[in-house]
Amino acid sequence: MTSTIASKSTPIPPGIYCPVISLYKATARQEVDYDASYKFFSHLIRGGVDGLVLAGTTAEAVLLSAEERKELVKVARKAAVDLGRPEFPIVAGISGQSTNESIRLAEDALEAGASFGLLLPPSYWAKAVTKDVILGFYRDVADSTTLPIVIYSFPAMCNGIDMNSDTMSELAQHPNIVGVKLTCGNAGKVTRLTEEYSHEQFAVYAGSSDWLIPCLAGGGGGCVTGIANVFPKCVAHLYALWNQGKTKEARELQGLVAQAEKACKEGIAPTKFGAAHFAGPSAGITDARAFWPRKPYTPCSEEKSTWVVKVMQHLESLEQSLPDAI
């Protein structure tokens, strides 16, 4: 490592993080179903994921109110405490288009029990988002809260705003910016950043599990993956195999996970349908409508649903064979 900066006071633990889907009541207004959410959070923690991410893209964060975001963090923290994991990492999405809004969301998340905050760059007026704007935005938010900040790089959701590794490296030097989630899928950013920084200085995560092993091989700390909503044990097992030095088995499972995850690449509705079909019964959530996207968005068509089952079902038996982590 070339950087001599101090390790962060609260580094984000390595591992598999699940960006948890939001569950709704089967009503006209689709209020958030906090009871179902508690069951699902508990299911994921028992399944062996290393952290939960709330109010991110997979959670339909732009469709959630600030109060709903805050309450979901409280429910997730309660689920972790009830399972004997009071310090379980909970990452809360705090992305706002203004610095002021992001600081307010960070304050809410911290008060509700979040461990870290996940923050997209501003993007509303993309042409006005210069490097200096990005640096100022992240530094101002990080200066204004004790909630450790994780950069969220997802150009497809940000009007094409794509932070390069040099910009991230400058932000990494801030004492309250602890890592990055690379949903941009750029493995080069992994190797450049991990050459400069240790995990404790600045952690680097893949934004999906279909390139978990390439990220780990490049020095990354894990991944944040939507398919963990569907098969949490499988993804946790893949991570464990790699860490145990069982590279052949890990590579084989990596391919199977990647094949299944292509359904998640098709959008929120297929991800939520997969979770309803494969994980809902185990989590104790039997009403498939809880997994529907929030209006105006619609659930999968019958044709798409059939395809999701087809591309994911090869992991079902492995998921069922693996023991609970708790």
TrEMBL record:
Identify the keywords attached in UniProt to this record, alphabetized.
Answer: Lyase
Under InterPro entries, the record lists: Aldolase_TIM (IPR013785), DapA-like (IPR002220)
Q: Which GO terms describe its molecular function?
A: 4-hydroxy-tetrahydrodipicolinate synthase activity
Question: Does the keyword section mention Lyase?
Answer: yes
Q: Where does pyruvate bind?
A: T58, V224
Q: Name one Pfam family in it.
A: DHDPS
Q: What SMART domains does the annotation carry?
A: DHDPS (SM01130)
| Active-site annotation | Y152, K181
PANTHER family under this entry? DIHYDRODIPICOLINATE SYNTHASE, DIHYDRODIPICOLINATE SYNTHASE-RELATED
The UniProt entry's sequence similarity note says: Belongs to the DapA family.
User: What is the protein's name according to its record?
Assistant: Dihydrodipicolinate synthase
